[in-house]
Amino acid sequence: MPGGDGTMRGAVKIFDEICKRKLNISVTGIPKTVDNDIGIIDRSFGFQTAVEVAQQAINAGHVEAESAVNGIGLVKLMGRSTGHIALHATLSSRDVDCCLIPENDFYLEGKGGLFQFLEHRLKQNGHAVVVVAEGAGQDLIPRTDAQKEEKDESGNPVFLDVGVWLKSELKQWWERDHKGELFTVKYIDPTYMIRAVPANATDNSYCTLLAHSAIHGVMAGYTGFVSGPINGNYAYIPLAEVAQAKNVVNTKDHKWAWVRSVTNQPDFIKS
């Protein structure tokens, strides 16, 4: 059963029912989610392709921003609960001025806020590129009581479009503080372009390895497992453990420190 954390949770229930009925059916999971939010394993199939295409969207946002006076390229990338795509695309691009992810809260107004940082960057370079993961800043977006209770088919809270909201907030901020000055926000949402694009060579070969590993495990008599690499070594991991584990961005490790170093963005910690 290829899929993300929701698929893995469903696979656990199917596996439990098969065990209950004592059926001779093997159940195995293959980690496939572009968000890379499946825990324990090194990475999920589709992630590298997503980062590659996301980088193209960032490059387009940079060109648009650079060609306008006080231009901001705003790129929204996939990532409900984790910001792996935004983080890795930012590091790969080197054109990003600020990366906003769900694991790191941010604020707009005041000292150390996003607006102050962008104002400084626009004065310095004349343009800026902001990458935001779809799950970032959800607590900042105004909601009705009905929207607060809304759930999707999987039971997850329905997210509002942070890209559209942030574009509106940026325009209101500039009109308020810099009335009469030229300002442009170019908003790019490559979500479905990323979802629909064919897998790149790395993901193609990785998927083949995962499939072969899963079949070998089944033929060896195993069931209720997920095949995947752990620290570079392919292993069979209990399905229930993978379904419960999460792979979130650790904002205390070297990768997020690298993002901060590349972008020089604020830490968004209010003093």
TrEMBL record:
Pfam families: PFK. Residues 3-216 form the Phosphofructokinase domain. Keywords: Allosteric enzyme, Kinase, Magnesium, Metal-binding, Transferase. It comes from the Eukaryota. Its cofactor is Mg(2+). SUPFAM superfamilies: Phosphofructokinase (SSF53784). One of its GO terms (biological process) is fructose 6-phosphate metabolic process. InterPro entries: ATP_PFK, PFKA, Phosphofructokinase_dom, PKF_sf. GO terms for molecular function: 6-phosphofructokinase activity; metal ion binding. This is Phosphofructokinase domain. It comes from Macleaya cordata. The lineage of its organism: Eukaryota, Viridiplantae, Streptophyta, Embryophyta, Tracheophyta.
